[in-house]
Amino acid sequence: MAKKNEKAKENGGAKAVSTFKVKKGLAQMLKGGVIMDVVTAEHAKIAEDAGAVAVMALERVPADIRADGGVARMSDPALIEEIMETVSIPVMAKVRIGHFVEAQILEALGVDYVDESEVLTPADDAHHINKHDFNIPFVCGCRNLGEALRRIGEGAAMMRTKGEAGTGDVIEAVRHARSVLGEIKRLQNMPSEEMMAYAKSIGAPYDLVVETAELGRLPVVNFAAGGLATPADAALMMQLGVDGVFVGSGIFKSGDPAKRGEAIVRATTHFQDPEILAEVSRNLGEPMVGRQVSDIPEEEMLAQRGW
Amino acid sequence: MLIGVLALQGDFEEHLNILRKIGVEIRDVRMPQDLDDLDGLIIPGGESTTIGKLADDFGLLEPLRRFGEAKPIWGTCAGAILLSKDVRRAQPLLELMDITVERNAFGRQVDSFEVDLKVPALERMDSSKQSFRAVFIRAPLIESLDGEDVEALSELEDGRIVAAQQGHFLATSFHPELTDDDRFHRYFIHMVDG
């Protein structure tokens, strides 16, 4: 169905909208940047002024979703629209895994990117959204290469390693980034005849496995997410080899969001310069309180949502 | 020849990859001293507010303006915004090129598109290929040319300007770095060669 859509949109040399190149192109423009979770238009303005490349509009940051419990759903369209009207940078919003109608609603609102996110309560315990069906692009979370390539196979135009959202503990973000990037390195050295069995073992589409091996990276932009709270955390993820970072609760659950946001933006650009990192890390006030991932019972881990 | 790409944020790696394939020397630019000895500079796509703020934060705005007095600069999308004199909103600009730019002129991401463009200057340089497949992502428009020596290099079918040149400055609303077509990069290298 998706293939048919794209053909219809690409007759001859004429104008074509919503091609995969255009969808993944926006993510390429966000590279080297920080995408910040915001819950009000006022937050969104602070994020834009701090240098965010995009904002993620949601009703509660992951730390609060974790604390409040209950079912977490797509945000109120009125809130998302207010944020879209407030800032000039791209606006993203989250839908529940598999909830294609929430995605249809976000498409109708005209958000720039949809995050099919494990941070919200899943709507389908077996299937993700067929993202090829949509004109707006999707970003999805992953813990390993197989999960990343399944999502790209479904049409995701951007990935983020999941980490463990709402904790302020970077350990899971590191684990997932190392897993994805390490598997890609192994793939690059793999004889081509082994790739089919490898694709089978990680549950990934064969053609995307081959493409990833050829490129030496994921076929789409890959950010880090989940538990980043400091400029050093952002620089750590950049040095590990991701293309940019999402910071959720880490900014607006801290003592001085404007200052911390700006510091994380600077650290993401100058991630290889320890002197600048030392400078921007000074006097940022209280970081988010945080919760150690090892203290969280397995059934409360958000990252395990996704199939 | 040494070409720099401003690497504060955005798709600078895509530009570096194309320049690497063409075979010129390259350097990513993050601090003022990185501009030393460059023959030309590309400002990539990205978020213009972020790139402008980081350039301001790290003391790059004045060095970039001085660089532009003598050396060629090409801006793609966000880069074109930064080169411009006016975007009708308050954000840091280099104000080097006499153009007025409208940000997000086509709408939001859902309105982003690809299209074949006629670019006579590229056809004169290399007649083997004709139109240029241009990728527009939340793209700006060059709303007006505000100097007598500013020339439109390409227009959409409805006449709106999407590429312009003024002396040693080049601005494109779209992203040649997202395609396999390296003609715009070679055109810029010709400009640097002078």
What does this structure look like?
The complex is a heterodimer of chains A (307) and B (194). Chain A is built from 14 helices and 9 strands. Chain A has helices spanning 2-9, 20-30, 41-50, 62-68, 77-86, 100-109, 145-153, 171-188, 195-202, 206-215, 231-240, 249-252, 257-269, 274-280, and strands at 16-17, 34-38, 54-57, 91-96, 113-117, 138-142, 158-161, 221-224, 245-247. Chain A has an 8-stranded parallel β-sheet, with helices on both faces. With 194 residues, chain B is an alpha/beta fold. The radius of gyration of chain B is 15 Å and the shape is globular. Chain B contains 6 helices and 12 strands. Chain B has a 7-stranded mixed β-sheet with strand order 2-1-3-4-12-11-10. In chain B, strands 5-6-9 form a 3-stranded mixed β-sheet. At the A-B interface, strand 1, helix 2 and helix 13 of A face helix 1, helix 2, strand 7 and strand 8 of B. Strand 1 of chain A pairs antiparallel with strand 7 of chain B, so a sheet runs across the interface.
What secondary-structure arrangement, pairings included, does this model have?
The complex is a heterodimer of chains A (307) and B (194).
Chain A: H1 2-9, E1 16-17, H2 20-30, E2 34-38, H3 41-50, E3 54-57, H4 62-68, H5 77-86, E4 91-96, H6 100-109, E5 113-117, E6 138-142, H7 145-153, E7 158-161, H8 171-188, H9 195-202, H10 206-215, E8 221-224, H11 231-240, E9 245-247, H12 249-252, H13 257-269, H14 274-280
Parallel strand pairs in A: 2-3, 2-9, 3-4, 4-5, 5-6, 6-7, 7-8
Chain B: E1 2-6, H1 12-22, E2 25-29, E3 40-43, H2 48-57, H3 61-70, E4 73-76, H4 78-83, E5 84-86, E6 97-102, E7 113-117, H5 120-125, E8 132-136, E9 141-145, E10 150-155, E11 161-166, E12 169-172, H6 183-193
The ordered H/E elements of chain A are HEHEHEHHEHEEHEHHHEHEHHH
Lateral arrangement of strands in the main beta sheet of chain A: 8-7-6-5-4-3-2-9
Q: Uncertain spans of chain B, ≥5 residues at pLDDT below 50?
A: none
Instruction: Kindly report the average pLDDT value of chain A.
Output: 94
> How confident is the prediction overall: mean pLDDT of chain B?
96
Sequence of strands across the biggest β-sheet of chain B: 2-1-3-4-12-11-10
Unreliable runs of chain A, pLDDT <50, ≥5 residues?
Answer: 1-12
Q: Residue share in helices of chain A?
A: 40-55%
CATH class of chain B: Alpha Beta
How big is the Rg of chain A?
Answer: 19 Å
Cα-to-Cα separation, first versus last residue of chain B: 12 Å
